[in-house]
Design a protein that fits this description.
- It catalyses: tRNA(Ala) + L-alanine + ATP = L-alanyl-tRNA(Ala) + AMP + diphosphate.
- Its EC number is 6.1.1.7.
- GO terms for molecular function: alanine-tRNA ligase activity; aminoacyl-tRNA deacylase activity; ATP binding; tRNA binding; zinc ion binding.
- It is a single chain.
- Helices cover about 40% and strands about 25% of the residues.
- The protein is an alpha+beta fold.
- It folds into 5 domains: about 240 residues, BirA Bifunctional Protein, domain 2; about 140 residues, no CATH class; about 100 residues, Elongation Factor Tu (Ef-tu), domain 3; about 150 residues, Threonyl-trna Synthetase, Chain A, domain 2 (Threonyl-tRNA Synthetase, Chain A, domain 2, 2-Layer Sandwich); about 110 residues, Diaminopimelate Epimerase, Chain A, domain 1, CATH 3.10.310.40.
- Strands 1, 2, 5, 6, 7, 8, 9, 10 and 11 form a 9-stranded mixed β-sheet that branches. A 6-stranded antiparallel beta barrel has the order 13-16-20-19-18-22. Strands 30-31-32-33-35-34 form a 6-stranded mixed β-sheet, sandwiched between helices.
């Protein structure tokens, strides 16, 4: 039975049982900060389970796409190695909210699996588990379904921790939960007895989990009964397909087999590592669907998971010989063969965006991967004891981004052992150090953790406010007063100071009364808690006393110019490049602003000039800016731009600049665009995969910037001693002259190398047509030794060569042996002979070895000793041409 047919039958079965078929929800949970990705079919019904939302229908069914790559449900490291685990899979499910509970859901499951009109599976092959204190479920299986008692296995709590069991289902550390009963299918030919859960997992495949939602687990690990006991079942489509298609893993089912064949055809490699193929096949589905949902590879949250998925594929690709981008081509398969997935994720319409994103990430990572893999191979060659240092493995991961699982795979093939206990200790130790740094950073940079009084912000258009001090913080403690010259934090009942948020820095200014003057350096904000950080310049201030809060107006207006200009830039980018422009972050101060965003298009210098013209025209028109307080749902109807990753309250603030820019924002802005003065982009660069960063300035800073550039140009003109107005032409001519000089220098160097090579060949010691060259070269760059080696190998058929070089304080060497004699003596053998006389380290292969010597100066006598020992070795081993 084909996979698509199984999905269709499941939905049809429950439709006939009066269930509403619900389309698969997004992989990105909406308005749910407890989950990175949708990890179960019940996610889209979570608010109904918790009683926050009333349902008008009691029963639903769906085929939900899920991702499990972290937290409790983390299948990432199992993918490829185990037969039924995937990062992305489809979960078939039926859900009931008060209409039916345990008995009906068990009866439905049994009917669908075993009835001849549906899946017609053998009853003798089915095994059941249940939670030990869920006696009701046990009795339903025994008395209603009439399952054989020896096919019913009791599952207890792990380590005697209550509700910590395979058969007590939890979505995460908090949320709906309850006992469950799992259905297993025996894949063996003979129906032998199964004694316990370990044997069950060994011989059977778990195909369906029926969860009875009775509780809500709070973060404090308390279980609260849900208002309506509900049913949530989940059956992995890939698993049930494997069982019905009589194959040993879900990677052998119809859809995966077609995908693996497509991969083989498109990546064109002679030998295949089956584990690597499985990983590539699994991960292309996940990466394609996530990018289609506008998740972009990055260093945080969902973006980091996607980057990790892609980089794991590329590392495995590199391992099987794919050293050029290949992954981006494979997303085409989903359009052509996986029609349901294509429909659910709009892959066809997003395919160019997906391929560009994947290609960009591949190109970026290959540069890192090449270095990491080269260094790993070097370490493997050097380590003759067949053991790799755990610190070096972690160094390769942390410094060069080489995934630890890839290092593990390569070492396994080369029969090199790794002490994983030590490696895990190093990883955990590094995590703790990082955590301490982050805690220290929070403690140093934020005083908000000590603020307990709320403030009302009233400073969008008011720059001075009469207020009252409600809290003073000094040395991380609430105090009643602050003395002269002391550094501290003030909290006011009402304030015109804007606390840092929405990418905009906090205000500075003064808080004064007749008793004292407090200089505010920075203002921090978290919700309604606003902290004014600074020092008391003179006098004394007390809690409960009235004060006048006055912001630095000049600074605020410059910040407003930059913030409003950012909105204009964002709108202009969308107009130019379309809705694929997605904001990733921003930073706005009084000097400049920067805007980070996703865009697959290359932004050229011409594009920058056009953007500057568009925005400056909007500024010249002096368009009125309206700040509208409205509902979030109404803002979406206006097609307001907002951050999809941010959770918004029902009431939002919408900044409208005509119909050109409509954006949700809590920051401060001018009343009209003319106040900005002028606009100039000063930097445009890529900071990550498809992520661009534009830095810009406004107002007087634009004038100062142009003046500075003009002064620089005058200095360059003076330096060139050029009377012409065309400075560019003069520099172009100068660059041409430099290129000519560099070419002449290169030609001279090549001639020098050629001459050195001839001299070395003329002085070679020859045994049976084998030229032995041992030479100390001190006046050439170390990189030139390879060129000399290549020239000599072209001229001489049989060569053993040691070239020692001292160009800086480090003495390096290169050993080279021609192919026709490496069966008798190779470069590694020669290195070992040399290092028996001189201390040092090196590594390479049989043809060529590179390394460094501890001796700073090599004497002619030492050169002779090395040469004699090699000649002796050649004679002794009867090395002939």
């Amino acid at each position: 039975m084909k996979t698509d047919k199984i999905r269709s039958l499941f939905l049809q079965f429950f439709k006939e049982k009066n269930h509403i078929i619900v389309k698969s929800g997004s992989l990105i949970p909406k308005n749910d900060n407890t989950l990175l990705f949708t990890n179960a079919g019940m996610n889209q019904f979570k608010e109904i389970y918790l009683g926050y939302k009333k349902n008008h229908t009691s029963s639903y069914t769906s085929s939900q796409y899920c991702i499990r790559t972290g937290g409790k449900h983390n299948d990432f490291n199992k993918v490829g190695y185990e037969p039924y685990h995937h990062t992305l899979f489809e979960m078939l499910g039926n859900f009931s909210f008060g209409e039916y509970f345990k008995e009906t859901s068990i009866v439905y499951a049994w009917e669908f699996l075993t009835h001849k009109n549906w899946l017609n599976m053998s009853k003798k092959k089915i095994w059941i588990t249940y939670y030990y204190n869920d006696i009701e479920t046990k009795n339903i299986w025994l008395n209603k379904i009439k399952i054989k008692p020896n096919h019913l296995i009791t599952i207890y709590d792990k380590n005697n921790i209550e509700y910590h069991s395979n058969n007590f289902w939890k979505m995460g550390n908090s949320g709906p939960c309850g006992p469950c009963t799992e259905i297993f299918y025996d894949t063996r030919k003979k129906n032998n007895t199964i004694k316990n859960h370990d044997e069950l997992k060994k011989y059977c495949v778990e195909i369906w989990n029926l969860v009875f939602m009775q509780f809500n687990q709070t973060k404090s690990n308390k279980l609260i009964e849900l208002p309506i006991p509900s049913v949530d079942t989940g059956m992995g489509l890939e698993r049930i397909s494997a069982v019905l298609q009589n194959v040993s893993s879900s990677y052998e089912t119809d859809n995966f087999i077609k995908l693996i064949q497509f991969i083989k055809k498109n990546i064109k490699i002679k030998s295949y590592n089956y584990i690597s193929l499985r990983i590539i096949a699994d991960h292309i589905r996940t990466a394609t669907c996530l990018i289609s949902e506008k998740v972009i590879p990055g260093n945080e949250g969902r973006s980091y998971v996607l980057r990790r998925i892609i980089r794991r594929v590329l590392s495995h690709g590199y391992f099987i010989g794919l050293h050029k981008p290949f992954f981006y081509k494979l997303s085409e398969f989903i359009i052509n063969s996986m029609k349901q997935m294509d429909l659910d994720f709009n892959i066809s319409s997003n395919i160019n965006f997906i391929k560009k994103t994947l290609l960009s990430e591949e190109q970026q990572f290959y540069r890192i991967l090449k270095i990491g893999m080269h260094k790993l191979k070097k370490e493997i060659i050097v380590n003759q004891n067949k053991k790799l240092c755990e610190k070096k493995i972690f160094h390769l991961y942390e410094t060069f981004g080489l995934p630890i699982e890839i290092t593990q795979d390569i070492c396994k093939e080369k029969k090199i052992s790794i002490n994983f206990q030590k490696l895990n200790q190093i990883i955990e130790s590094n995590k703790k150090k990082q955590k301490k740094k982050n805690i220290k950073k929070i403690q140093n940079n934020s005083c908000l953790i000590y603020v307990t009084k709320k403030s009302i912000f009233d400073g969008y258009y008011e720059y001075v406010k009469k207020s009252k001090i409600t809290q003073i913080i000094y040395k991380n403690q609430s105090v009643l007063c602050l003395s002269e010259k002391c550094i501290g934090t003030l909290v006011l009942d009402i304030t015109p100071f804007y606390g840092e948020s929405s990418g905009q820095i906090g205000d500075s200014g003064t808080i004064t009364n007749e008793k004292g003057k407090f200089i505010v350096h920075d203002t921090q904000k978290n919700g309604n808690f606003i902290a004014h950080q600074g020092y008391l310049e003179k006098g004394i201030l007390h809690v409960g006393k009235n004060v006048v809060a006055k912001i630095d107006v000049n600074k605020r207006k410059k910040i407003q110019s930059n913030h409003t200009a950012l909105h204009l830039l964002h709108a202009a980018l969308i107009k130019k490049f379309g809705l694929n422009v997605i904001q990733k972050g921003s930073y706005i101060n009084n000097e400049y602003f920067r805007f980070d965003f996703i865009c697959n298009n290359n932004i050229t210098e011409k594009d920058i000039q056009k953007l500057e013209i568009i925005i400056n025209k909007k500024i010249q028109k002096n368009i009125k800016i309206n700040a509208i307080i409205t509902s979030f749902s109404r803002a979406k109807k206006y097609k307001a731009v907002y951050l999809s990753s941010k959770k918004y309250k029902n009431t939002v603030r919408m900044i409208c600049i005509n119909n050109f820019s409509i954006e949700l924002c809590s920051g401060t802005h001018h009343k009209s665009t003319g106040k900005i003065g002028c606009f100039k982009i000063i930097k445009n660069k890529n900071i990550g995969n498809s992520i661009k960063r534009i830095t810009a300035i406004t107002g007087i800073n634009v004038i100062l910037y142009i003046q500075k550039k003009t002064q620089k140009e005058k200095k360059i003109k003076k330096l060139l001693n050029n009377n012409s107005n065309d400075t560019y032409k003069s520099i172009k001519n100068l660059v041409k002259k430099i290129h000519c000089i560099e070419k002449e220098k290169k030609d001279l160097t090549n001639q020098n190398i050629l001459q050195i090579s001839k001299n070395l060949m003329s002085k070679a010691y020859i045994i049976n047509n084998i030229s032995i060259i041992v030479s100390y070269i001190s006046h050439l760059k170390y990189t030139m030794l390879t060129n000399i080696s290549d020239i000599i190998k072209q001229k001489k058929e049989s060569v053993i060569m040691i070239l020692i070089n001292k160009n800086t304080s480090i003495t390096r060497f290169l050993i080279s042996v021609t192919n026709n004699i490496i069966q008798y003596i190779n470069a590694v053998d020669i290195m070992n002979i040399m290092l028996s006389l001189l201390s040092g380290t090196g590594g390479g292969n049989k043809n060529i070895v590179k390394g460094k010597l501890n001796n700073k100066n090599i004497t002619p006598t030492e050169i002779k000793k090395i040469k004699k020992k090699i000649i002796k070795h050649v004679y002794k081993n009867n090395v002939y041409k």
